[in-house]
From TrEMBL, chain A:
Enzyme class of the recorded protein, top EC level: transferase
Entry GO MF terms: cysteine desulfurase activity; iron-sulfur cluster binding; metal ion binding; pyridoxal phosphate binding
Record GO cellular component, one term: nucleus
UniProt GO BP: [2Fe-2S] cluster assembly
Taxonomy, superkingdom: Eukaryota
EC number: 2.8.1.7
InterPro entries: Aminotrans_V_dom, Aminotrans_V_PyrdxlP_BS, Cys_deSase_IscS, Cysteine_dSase, PyrdxlP-dep_Trfase, PyrdxlP-dep_Trfase_major, PyrdxlP-dep_Trfase_small
Start and end residues of each Aminotransferase class V domain: 51-412
Similarity section: Belongs to the class-V pyridoxal-phosphate-dependent aminotransferase family. NifS/IscS subfamily.
Cofactor annotation: pyridoxal 5'-phosphate
PROSITE patterns according to UniProt: AA_TRANSFER_CLASS_5
UniProt keyword list: Iron, Iron-sulfur, Metal-binding, Pyridoxal phosphate, Transferase
Annotated organism of origin: Photinus pyralis
Protein name: cysteine desulfurase
TrEMBL record, chain B:
Name of the protein in question: Complex 1 LYR protein domain-containing protein
Single GO cellular component term: L-cysteine desulfurase complex
Lineage: Eukaryota, Metazoa, Ecdysozoa, Arthropoda, Hexapoda
PANTHER family: LYR MOTIF-CONTAINING PROTEIN 4 (PTHR13166:SF7), PROTEIN C6ORF149 (PTHR13166)
InterPro entries according to UniProt: Complex1_LYR_dom, Complex1_LYR_LYRM4, ISC_assembly_LYR
Amino acid sequence: MYRCITKINLYNSAILSKKCEPLTFLTNSRFLQTETNYNIKEQVFDGRPLYLDAQATTPLDPRVLDSMLPYLTSFYGNPHSRTHAYGWESEEAVEKARTQIANIIGADPKEIIFTSGATESNNISIKGVARFYGAKKKHVITTQTEHKCVLDSCRALEGEGFKVTYLPVGENGILSLEDLDRTITPETALVSVMTVNNEIGVKQPISEIGRICKAKKVFFHTDAAQAVGKVPMDVNEMNIDLMSISGHKIYGPKGVGALYVRRRPRVRLEALQSGGGQERGLRSGTVPTPLAVGMGTACEIATKEMAYDHKWMEKLSKRLIDQIFGKLEHVIRNGDPVQTYPGCVNLSFAYVEGESLLMALKDVALSSGSACTSASLEPSYVLRAIGADEDLAHSSIRFGIGRFTTIEEVDYTAQKCIYHVTRLREMSPLWEMVQEGVNLKTIQWSQH
Amino acid sequence: MSRVQVLALYKSLIKESQKFDSYNYRNYALRKIRDCFRENMNLTDNAKIKEEILGGQKNLEIIRRQVFVGNLYKTDKLVIEMMK
């Protein structure tokens, strides 16, 4: 049996019991406490949690799995084998997938390289370009809100003697184009800015950045793992030289990604991995046929259904936001509310500790930020970069809506969220003070 | 393609999608099928109609296979399904 965590019994010592008024808007019997004593220990949930973490990963689309299965069973040839039919049929499938991926970003299939995921694509782009042109140009520009793998690749370059500028972003999470324009020097080899932020969903002005980079003859890389298949992307219109794409963020399989590398004018890279010289020598290693096929199908579906899916995300995120903002005060939406991807809603609930809220919301799979950093209790560096106060950075939750999310799931999540935020606030002395009109920032906390 | 055949395809697609074990796949498939047929309700171009029908038939085959695969690896129901 494929049973996962089904009965979740919560033992959270911090929030064991507290008097709490039952909320009338929660119609379900599970919420309606017969007695007013809430005890989180007694909250045993039947069934699997709902999934609202679409930025961490997405479920495989059944159509994607259907296209992959033949290559996991009957057609197992190595796509690089040139001497027999097993190789040819796999090669044909891989090339079809390459075309499907190229189509979604307006590229030529020859410009697509299969990798193991967006992390590898980012590593190859940043380290590869910097090292290739490193003899003449020793400067790389990125932003403070990039994904960990971009920031870490830049740190590695700093160790090799490169100068890296980490541009700040505004309170809305968007990079200032003047700042970028000013920072580019004749020494600059590469600018790397992500398209859609994985934590706050903010969309950077990619076309404008592309234009600036083209004018200044600097290579432009964008980490579009959260953007491809969700918002329209065109490498030529947007003047993008390198682009990282992930398979599992667009309902494709995990363990596969792609890198777009412009051919005209040619972008040259130093490969990170030595081997058989597959993928134009930029990424040696056998291309995993089933994964590549899955990613291709995922891209084809996304191309056809982008507008349909986008409309659905807009509808659901509006529904979620309206419900939460309608019932709760002191909720802050992180990141620009307009220049954003609607499937990612990052909210800070003031006077509530994010981790306690996540604990209480065990029947909904949510995250306070990126999955890579979800093990640490440190507040997100992205939220710090947009100038969120420490306490608000600690109280944030990211709601990730996907193609397979339903209205019912959004309603359930919103109701539970409202219920638990209200409950946690009622036991908070800070909230009590706020209700009495005390400005918390003026308090001199005594040291013990 | 007659109206009857189109309706028969619609019915089979809905009927087959209702068999998805996964709550999310089932609801997505039903929503998508309904929206798709509604969107194409007033198509008049015969070539376009034929193309859509062919796509629908292909999807019906995919749904049949994936319902089967889904049933091989069943999970427990989601919390909201248990509420009903």
